[in-house]
Amino acid sequence: AHIYPKIPRPFYRKKRFMIPTCLLLTLLIVAVVIGVILGTKSKPTKYVCDNPFEPFDAVDTGNFPSSSVLDYFDNDTYIDVAIANSNDNTVSLLLGDKEQILRSTRPAIGQSPS
């Protein structure tokens, strides 16, 4: 026997602590998931060049080189270099090989190359 009639209360009044608690719990779960994803992400590997410049052998190209051409002169897969020397009228041909070394050759060209 109630003296006063029972007043119906809306959901948000009866459970006013439940909605913020669920929201806080959801945000906490999202924060943990994002933290795990960012924490376990692998960092990019930084490669350090130990020896950037290899020692090279000097290659004789003649006197006063005036122009050069890069091409595959001996029909292999390695780049070759042809250098025209204006002072002594010669052409130097540097043939590339699989060790990435240019080998010097002097082809016969005649009296006055053009």
UniProtKB/TrEMBL annotation:
UniProt name for this protein: Uncharacterized protein
Q: Which domain of life is it from?
A: Eukaryota
Q: Does the keyword Transmembrane apply?
A: yes
Keyword terms: Membrane, Transmembrane, Transmembrane helix
TM stretches of this protein: 17-38
